[in-house]
Amino acid sequence: MAEPSAAGRSFDDEALPHLDALYRVALRLTMDPTQAEDLVQDTMLKAYRSWRQYRPGTNAKGWLLTILRNTFINDYRRRKLEPIAMDLEAAEPHAILRQIADSDPEGNFFAQIVDQRVLEAIDALPTEFREVLVLSDMEGLSYADIAETLQVPVGTVKSRLFRARRQLQGALYAHAVEMGYIRPRTG
Amino acid sequence: MGQTIDCREAEARLQDFLKQELTPELAVEVRGHLDRCRRCFDHARFEESFLRMLEARARQEVCPGRVRDRILQALRREAERG
Fold this sequence. Notes:
The complex is a heterodimer of chains A (187) and B (82). Chain A has 187 residues and is an all-alpha fold. Helix content of chain A is 66%, strand content 0%. Chain A folds into 2 domains: 11-79, RNA polymerase sigma factor, region 2, helix turn helix motif (Rna Polymerase Sigma Factor, Chain: A, Orthogonal Bundle), CATH 1.10.1740; 88-179, Winged helix-like DNA-binding domain superfamily/Winged helix DNA-binding domain (Arc Repressor Mutant, subunit A). In chain A, helix 3 crosses helix 4. The radius of gyration of chain A is 19 Å and the shape is elongated. Chain A starts with 10 loop residues before the first helix and ends in an 8-residue tail after the last helix. With 82 residues, chain B is an all-alpha fold. Chain B has one domain. Helices cover 78% and strands 0% of the residues of chain B. The model of chain B has no long low-confidence stretch (mean pLDDT 91). The interface between A and B is large, with 47 and 34 residues.
């Protein structure tokens, strides 16, 4: 249905395979299924209209996610209150992670936490952390692609990722203790 | 080779190492440290299981067929509009 780009690859072939990824990222950014649907649709329509600007052979997923994120910031972000940033690292530098890794080096406790709880913990991260974590660790974008998508230096991507992962690990650990999956180490 | 970094630096670079985002030289340094240090090796296993868990959870969520259809329809309307 869509017209081919300069190189002949059609919008359908290049963009549609990334619909799942766009939907997942939209869900994590909006934290609302209805808004996520609208965001993905807006993104696909914008991408379709500016398809001639896509350089064939470059990273289509990154290109689409950039459009999605810009659309989110411009049209969606203000609708929802930001979650309050809770910085575990500042409270207890490195101690928590060491404690978890020492008591469960295989990371077995992760397997016991249900999907929904993991997603809720991700949604509870501040947006700046949530978006790098989702793009890198769930959607597999390289640090360089994320830097381009977010328009920040690679070093910023790295430090945000580091803190995002620590915070998520801490939240999942706290949940696992609460549920009795693991016993907290004392002393 | 691989003798110069300590636990502190290895820990700071561990995630980037696992995501294959280090330069080859730094990756060799980190790998060398992990071969020598049991504690950091355990830490690396833990970080790896965390990253694998996230990848696995991500794949379980797909765009619902109803949403896909709705978007395809919107694109078709857009195409017809020209």
